[in-house]
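Quarterly update, task 2.4: magnesium ion-bound model.
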Amino acid sequence: MNRRTFLSAPVFAVPLAAAPSSGAPAIETRIRRLRLRHTWTTVMSSSEYRDTFFVEYSRDGITGIGEGAPIIRYRESAESCRAALESIRPWLVGQRPEAFVKLMDGVFRRIEGNFAAKAALDIALLDWNAQKLGVPLWRWFGLDRNDAPLTTFSIGIDKADVIRQKVREAEDFPVLKIKVGLDNDEEVIAAVRSVTRKPLRVDANEGFRSKEEAVEKINWLEKQGVEFIEQPLPAANLEDMNWIRKRVHIPVFADEACLHPADVPRLAPYFDGVNVKVDKCGGLLEAKRMIEMARSLGLKVMLGCMVSSSVAITAAAHLSPLVDYADLDGNLLIANDPYEGVRVDKGRLILPDRPGLGLRPRPGAA
Ligand code: MG
């Protein structure tokens, strides 16, 4: 090639560094109604089904799937989550999924509240990226799936005969989580103890009405073989927590009081541990920040969940090697799970060894 032909040759574009994805993504948002196996009752509500919010993010022949369970207590619904995500669609389709930390930062700045919507998108993007790299998400986080803890199986508040039935159905789980906080705590625990001697963990969901009642109940629960308790008092009541902790022996965890990374240092003087939920904080990236912050402050960490399908539960399970305790049973409480992912064997979480979340459609699922 002489100088003349060189100058007239077509100019080839210099490839931009790290731009492996091309074209606009296809983003689907949908609401699924998950039917509960048993009516699910806690201090807050009683329900036969839950509507959760799903995101499917497709690009380059790969689809990442995410799910978030809206929390009514924080004024979210599946519809509000869908509307929130749809409101940023024009911006979202122009973003590169590989830069998901920057992308999610932009999402947090653009969407107020609606953390289940953020969680669904965060999970879909991480599923997409880990699939693109061909690694399971736990490996991408640098974790060992053999470190995944046991999960509890949760027993909602119910009549004694139904509780006995639920406890029998949970035979494979070595530790149970029992919901208390209404007026029938003695009846609930007696029904559980009439069937099993397993260790128990208890969640009061802010249900105890005074610090005195909390101390009396917690010390009684300890004698019933309870290892620790979640959120005995309303989330806003921190001043009574240290009074309580001076008078009980078992650890006390914050759940409703602990939503976001910034809550963790604020709560550290008042609790022994925190319950981190992907749906509360808005995704796996935020959940990991909370776990690391809690660890750095010497707090115990539980990874909890809402009633949801195997999408959200499997996503949380990929972080579970980082925590002390898992309560990841929300998918086991529903009758129409569209996917399968994490499995449970005698209470132990078995993380998929497939790329991304490792989800598969459940055979025969609608
Ligand atoms: Mg709880």
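Highlight for this quarter: The CA atoms of residues 203 and 230 lie 5 Å apart.
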